[in-house]
């Protein structure tokens, strides 16, 4: 375990911040620009993983396992979200034959 912490600390914290920010921005752009529900869903997962990366990096740099525990719980919630979200997307596709978000907005009104 000590060897992994030393390897993580060998990379400057700024690199983790830049990578995590870049991943989060890509996820936000995917949610805002794309119309496909599955791509939007994957973009939300990418944003969660960016936050997980940052929490794990800060946890390793501080030597405090609390951030890694948060990462574990976030991953558990994300797995549940994937199961429920994909089930909802499959049911929407079965009923409408489309997963276009604009089409789903028209169903509201």
Short description:
The protein is mostly helical and 109 residues long. Helices cover 87% and strands 0% of the residues. The longest helix has 31 residues, at 66-96.
The secondary-structure element order is: HHHHH
Q: Measured on Cα atoms, how large is the radius of gyration?
A: 18 Å
| Biggest sheet layout | none
* CATH structural class: Mainly Alpha
Strand content: under 5%
What does the oligomeric state look like here?
A: single chain
Protein structure class: mainly alpha
The number of helical segments is 5
Number of strands: 0
Instruction: Count structural domains.
Output: 1
The poorly predicted ranges are none
Structural notes for this entry:
The chain has 109 residues and is mostly helical. It has a single domain (2-108), classed as Helix Hairpins (Orthogonal Bundle). Helices cover 87% and strands 0% of the residues. It contains 5 helices and no strands. It is elongated and about 50 Å long. The mean pLDDT is 84.
Itemize the secondary structure elements and their pairings.
Elements (H helix, E strand, L loop, with lengths): L1 H9 L2 H21 L3 H26 L3 H31 L4 H8 L1
């Amino acid at each position: 375990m000590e060897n992994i912490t030393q390897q993580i600390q060998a990379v400057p914290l700024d690199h983790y911040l830049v990578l995590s920010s870049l991943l989060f921005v890509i996820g936000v752009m995917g949610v805002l620009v794309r119309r496909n529900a599955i791509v939007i869903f994957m973009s939300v997962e990418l944003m969660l993983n960016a936050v997980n990366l940052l929490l794990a990096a800060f946890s390793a740099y501080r030597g405090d396992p609390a951030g890694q525990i948060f990462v574990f719980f976030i991953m558990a919630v994300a797995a549940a979200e994937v199961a429920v979200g994909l089930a909802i997307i499959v049911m929407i596709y079965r009923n409408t034959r489309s997963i276009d978000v604009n089409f789903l907005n028209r169903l509201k009104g």
